[in-house]
Amino acid sequence: MTIALVDVRKAYNIGGSEVFALAGVNLTIPTGEFTAIMGPEGSGKSTLMNILGCRDRPTIGSYTLDGQEITALNDVALAATRNQKIGFVYQHFNLLPRMSALQNTTLPLIYAGVDKQERYERAEQALLTVGLGKNMRQRPHEMTGGQRQRVAIAQALVNNPSIILADEPTGNLDTKAGNEIIDVFSRLNQQGHTVVIVTNAAEIARRTGRVIHVCNGRILGEESV
């Protein structure tokens, strides 16, 4: 499922002036690639991730996903594409504290209208995939930061998306836990998922296959690692 951006620009009106968070991005991410996006604060990398994840639209430019022009979709079709094809992982986990790991993992399937038995079967499989077979009944406060992030990854996996987008997924973790999380993403990539992460940690970026450097809303360059 190839991602292709052509001359993508994103403008915001700030104080009556038009400010471009993205200023002409051209980027192709082939199916099955493991990519890191790096850049300083305010460089546009979060805006870029929001567009890649179909959470925002470019002001100008083309975004095609698996050959489909995303900018032409209405809001309903955009949401359906996002829910069916893309899984999201966030720095702050975004788990509900009163729910177990298993219950948290079922949440995307509830929103998708999947029946209860199938929800739990799929959630269990997702948690097994990220190595939490023994922690399914624990609540977030009973788990380490690394375990909570694994639950968040299981949530992202449960709809079986082709693409996984992760925004600073190791930002709240120590080095050991962070490396374990990247191990999980590497295994998912080897299983065929396209994985894109935003990170400011060079040692994390070096564990992907390709690093994209962003600054001032533009891609400055890239490197294979």
Automatic annotation (TrEMBL):
Q: Which InterPro entries match?
A: AAA+_ATPase, ABC_transporter-like_ATP-bd, ABC_transpr_LolD-like, MacB-like_ATP-bd, P-loop_NTPase
List the Gene Ontology MF annotations in alphabetical order.
ATP binding; ATP hydrolysis activity; transmembrane transporter activity
EC number per UniProt: 3.6.3.-
Q: Which is one Gene Ontology cellular component term of this protein?
A: plasma membrane
The UniProt entry, under SUPFAM superfamilies, shows: P-loop containing nucleoside triphosphate hydrolases
Keywords tagged on the record: ATP-binding, Hydrolase, Nucleotide-binding, Transport
- Report the residue ranges that make up the ABC transporter domain in this protein: 3-225
Q: What is this protein called?
A: Putative ABC transporter ATP-binding protein YknY
User: What is the native source organism of this protein?
Assistant: Sporomusa termitida
Taxonomy of origin reads: Bacteria, Bacillati, Bacillota, Negativicutes, Selenomonadales
